[in-house]
Amino acid sequence: MGLKKLVIDIPALIASGVPADRIECEYLFHRGNPGAFSLLEVAEFAVTCRQCLEAFCVAACPKEALERLATGVVKRYNMRCVGCKSCVLACPFGTIFPEVINYVSTKCDFCLNQLVENPDYEPACVKTAPPGTFMMKEVGVEDPKTHLFFVGERLAIKSPNWLVKEGKR
User: Fold this and answer.
1) Radius of gyration, alpha carbons of the chain
2) Would the pLDDT of 61 be above 80?
3) C-alpha angle 125/127/107, rounded to 5°?
């Protein structure tokens, strides 16, 4: 049995028309964070970032809050960010929005404690999101052909991104 991941289908969520603040979250530290905003923040950055070959935002960051992974994906570390906005100025496409994304935020724990106790457990976000938008399931590998990309060990995002045919950017 493989590792379960939280899978968020961005196009399905947009098509549902349900506002993100209607999606509930049971994470203890999300009291001031309505619904699944912290998850959607990670998901939106992962798919709006154009993943430039020469990522100026990564080079501009003085605190290494942005990093190019071995897979070529640019990852953002919110807790390293000091809010200097160097990445915003360096991004030629304007896809980094610090006024929308808090640089100090709580982080979803993917209900790991509940999953250890009950492998069939479904978090509140899965129960309250429109069907087929938030799912807790086993996912084997990333699949760019079906637009499925991993963000860390426990989150998978399904959404078309800026990758061009044949893996070129």
Assistant:
1) 16
2) yes
3) 15
